[in-house]
């Protein structure tokens, strides 16, 4: 290997909240333990109604309870679907899907500093357009079956490989990811692994899940000497 070989930064974990949270104080306590169990780059507040719409009240309540705490651990907090709520909560960013506010419009609303993430599903074309429009990362998925979101489309790890070879904007992998199935996505080039049920529904608990993910990430760390 020569000095000029590019070594991409280590893949990191991007946590997504469960879609419904009954006990906010209990969740905040569990989250704090989870964030100290291993490296976590981001936390997305994704609270949904049974119909799959953003639950604004729940997002506001959970966001108020956890945003400052997560930020104090160096974790970037992103709000799903609502740029307005991201601003209101002093979050670090917003994640936008195909039915959400267009990236360009959201950029005007949140300003130049806030992170904007964009869903690309399995489309490199959509991902490139999102990048041109000002997104800071694009998310490909779903790589594995998931019960967390209905109507996902299947994505192949090739997408990550091609993206990593040709584009500079970071790419996130999402959909049914667990510590057991993550290796193919890490080696294909995911900059981040976005995970919900693989952490919150882990039989040994969320902190153990984060520790397990980090063991896999440590083992495959391409930036380590
Ligand atoms: C990191 C990340 N990637 C993709 C999604 C999905 O966003 P979207 O398609 O808008 O679907 P909902 O999450 O709103 O149901 C995401 N939230 N985060
Ligand atoms: C929110 C979301 N978006 C997806 C997409 O493919 O765009 S898959 C998904 C669900 C992520 O949760 P889990 O880790 O429990 O599968
Ligand atoms: Mg959305």
From TrEMBL:
<dbReference type="InterPro" id="IPR034291">
    <property type="entry name" value="TMP_synthase"/>
</dbReference>
<keyword id="KW-0784">Thiamine biosynthesis</keyword>
<dbReference type="Pfam" id="PF02581">
    <property type="entry name" value="TMP-TENI"/>
</dbReference>
<keyword id="KW-0460">Magnesium</keyword>
<dbReference type="InterPro" id="IPR022998">
    <property type="entry name" value="ThiamineP_synth_TenI"/>
</dbReference>
<dbReference type="GO" id="GO:0009229">
    <property type="term" value="P:thiamine diphosphate biosynthetic process"/>
</dbReference>
<feature type="binding site">
    <location>
        <position position="100"/>
    </location>
    <ligand>
        <name>Mg(2+)</name>
    </ligand>
</feature>
<feature type="binding site">
    <location>
        <position position="80"/>
    </location>
    <ligand>
        <name>4-amino-2-methyl-5-(diphosphooxymethyl)pyrimidine</name>
    </ligand>
</feature>
<comment type="function">
    <text>Condenses 4-methyl-5-(beta-hydroxyethyl)thiazole monophosphate (THZ-P) and 2-methyl-4-amino-5-hydroxymethyl pyrimidine pyrophosphate (HMP-PP) to form thiamine monophosphate (TMP).</text>
</comment>
<dbReference type="GO" id="GO:0009228">
    <property type="term" value="P:thiamine biosynthetic process"/>
</dbReference>
<feature type="binding site">
    <location>
        <position position="176"/>
    </location>
    <ligand>
        <name>2-[(2R,5Z)-2-carboxy-4-methylthiazol-5(2H)-ylidene]ethyl phosphate</name>
    </ligand>
</feature>
<dbReference type="GO" id="GO:0005737">
    <property type="term" value="C:cytoplasm"/>
</dbReference>
<dbReference type="GO" id="GO:0000287">
    <property type="term" value="F:magnesium ion binding"/>
</dbReference>
<dbReference type="InterPro" id="IPR013785">
    <property type="entry name" value="Aldolase_TIM"/>
</dbReference>
<feature type="domain" description="Thiamine phosphate synthase/TenI">
    <location>
        <begin position="13"/>
        <end position="199"/>
    </location>
</feature>
<protein>
    <recommendedName>
        <fullName>Thiamine-phosphate synthase</fullName>
        <ecNumber>2.5.1.3</ecNumber>
    </recommendedName>
</protein>
<feature type="binding site">
    <location>
        <position position="81"/>
    </location>
    <ligand>
        <name>Mg(2+)</name>
    </ligand>
</feature>
<keyword id="KW-0479">Metal-binding</keyword>
<feature type="binding site">
    <location>
        <position position="119"/>
    </location>
    <ligand>
        <name>4-amino-2-methyl-5-(diphosphooxymethyl)pyrimidine</name>
    </ligand>
</feature>
<dbReference type="GO" id="GO:0004789">
    <property type="term" value="F:thiamine-phosphate diphosphorylase activity"/>
</dbReference>
<dbReference type="InterPro" id="IPR036206">
    <property type="entry name" value="ThiamineP_synth_sf"/>
</dbReference>
<feature type="binding site">
    <location>
        <begin position="44"/>
        <end position="48"/>
    </location>
    <ligand>
        <name>4-amino-2-methyl-5-(diphosphooxymethyl)pyrimidine</name>
    </ligand>
</feature>
<comment type="similarity">
    <text>Belongs to the thiamine-phosphate synthase family.</text>
</comment>
<keyword id="KW-0808">Transferase</keyword>
<comment type="pathway">
    <text>Cofactor biosynthesis; thiamine diphosphate biosynthesis; thiamine phosphate from 4-amino-2-methyl-5-diphosphomethylpyrimidine and 4-methyl-5-(2-phosphoethyl)-thiazole: step 1/1.</text>
</comment>
<feature type="binding site">
    <location>
        <begin position="146"/>
        <end position="148"/>
    </location>
    <ligand>
        <name>2-[(2R,5Z)-2-carboxy-4-methylthiazol-5(2H)-ylidene]ethyl phosphate</name>
    </ligand>
</feature>
<feature type="binding site">
    <location>
        <position position="149"/>
    </location>
    <ligand>
        <name>4-amino-2-methyl-5-(diphosphooxymethyl)pyrimidine</name>
    </ligand>
</feature>
């Amino acid at each position: 290997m020569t000095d000029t070989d590019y070594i991409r930064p280590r893949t990191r974990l991007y946590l997504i909240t469960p879609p419904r949270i009954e006990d906010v104080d209990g969740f905040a306590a569990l989250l704090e333990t989870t964030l100290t169990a291993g490296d976590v780059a981001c936390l997305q507040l994704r609270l949904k109604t049974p119909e799959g719409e953003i639950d604004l009240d729940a997002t506001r309540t959970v966001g108020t309870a956890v945003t400052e705490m997560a930020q104090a651990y160096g974790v970037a907090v992103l709000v799903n679907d609502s740029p307005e709520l991201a601003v209101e909560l002093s979050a670090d960013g917003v994640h936008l899907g195909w039915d959400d506010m267009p990236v360009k419009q959201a950029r005007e609303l949140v300003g130049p500093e806030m992170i904007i993430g964009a869903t690309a599903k399995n489309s490199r074309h959509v991902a490139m357009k999102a990048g041109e429009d000002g997104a800071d990362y694009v998310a490909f998925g779903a790589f594995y079956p998931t019960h967390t979101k209905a109507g996902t489309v299947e994505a192949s790890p090739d997408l990550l490989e091609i993206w990593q070879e040709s584009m500079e904007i970071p790419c996130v992998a999402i959909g049914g990811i667990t510590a057991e199935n993550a290796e193919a996505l890490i080696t294909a080039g995911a900059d981040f692994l976005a995970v919900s049920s693989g952490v919150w529904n882990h039989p040994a608990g969320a902190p153990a899940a984060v520790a397990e993910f980090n063991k896999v990430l440590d083992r495959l760390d391409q930036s380590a000497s």
